[in-house]
User: What shape does this take?
Amino acid sequence: MVSLYELATPAYIPALEKKFRPAALANRAFVKLARESGSPQPLVIALERGSGAISRYETICLPDRHPQSFLNLEYAERLAKFLLWARGGWRIIIGGPKCIGEHIRSSYSKGGQRNFDSDFMGGVYGQDFVVEITEPKNVPLASESTMSIGGHLEGNRIGFDLGASDRKVSAVINGEAVFTEEVVWDPRNATDPQYHFDELMAALNSAAKHLPSVEAVGGSAAGIYIDNRPRVASLYRGIPKELFDSKTTNLFFDLQSAMGGVPFEVVNDGEVTALAGAMSLNDMPVLGLAFGSSQAAGYVTLKGEITTWLNELAFAPVDYSPESATCEWSGDRGVGGLYFSQQAVFRLAPKAGIDINPSLGLAEKLKIAQKCLEEGHDGARQIWESIGVYLGYSLAHYADFYEMKHVLILGRVTSGIGGDIVLAKANEVLRNEFPELKNFNLALPDEKARRVGQAVAAASLPKIAAGNKLAE
Assistant: This one.
């Protein structure tokens, strides 16, 4: 019996992960198989998220009588999972063969294979997660929403970027960074919300010393943020739920008060990655990917706006191999955060012959691997080449869900020569495996922008109202 991943043998095999089976190839092969069946069945998936916004995706599947119709379940499950984390939603509507809808419903039920995902999304949107089954013709039409974001460069601003291994801050005057600072920290193991407040306050005060006044503060942070409130984020995983609900959800409002009530805005770091790209390129649409402690993603549309999509591609599947790496948080295999982050470097390092002390912090671990790369270690080079292969195939997958003219990659993993290796290998994969994808440009920012560019872009998030009171 053929499995979906067996349709996905790539021409480029990562040196350190021989059984990598890219989603892009599997999905394309499945759709081709469905078309060649002579009677493909429509499959429509819609997702409802906050404020009634609805995303819709149309594809096809195999007819019930086809000898390989069992592939429908795996194809639809992986597709629904990707859409859920790319678009977000508390309700999935499945329009297609009833057995597919029932499979998705069972997977996302209590105790089901995707129980983590349904619980997570229910927490994000404050709704009980549901899966509805209907006919394709009854699936609601898309009702998307967008919003303007950032690009405000005037005045004296502070921008910060919060990752799991370091926090960055910039003092910015009329769009020019006059001071930047990176500090190693360990937020995920902190159990007291005061730790996060004190660390961020120290960063803001450090930047404020380099400004004549502070007129606005903008922040980029890993996780999901709605109206400046953290909803779900690994940065606060060590904080007990009752303290998170009573203290952490108000973290940025407390910081705003401490800064004199100036305009203060915080969004997901992926969105700021895309914003940084749009600002530097002065062209859209842009998909921004940050390779840090995990994978962050953001998207700026053709009109220079962001969607209300979730864009949490760290949890979106890119590898269909049953032997792919398992995410310790979600319990799922082959998801982006394990392929485009420091986690990818650390899990490949032993295969590359690099011994890294597990007791070290994330930043220190990465520096060891990067030093090996700079010294010409063959195994270290294979780590970054493998990430490049992952990226090439995954960008072809992302292209099925995002209109892209530019893709910008940054974050600590892309620092130094590693970023150039990733870029070259990804472009090679795209050029030879997907020659039809010629409509987007994959690029790295310069070295300075790779590491602190997000903090500078974050500074542009808030709009300074006329007559705003300055915090001296």
Observations:
- The chain has two domains: 11-144, 145-472.
- The CA atoms of residues 47 and 92 lie 5 Å apart.
- The two ends are 70 Å apart (CA to CA).
- The chain has a mean pLDDT of 92.
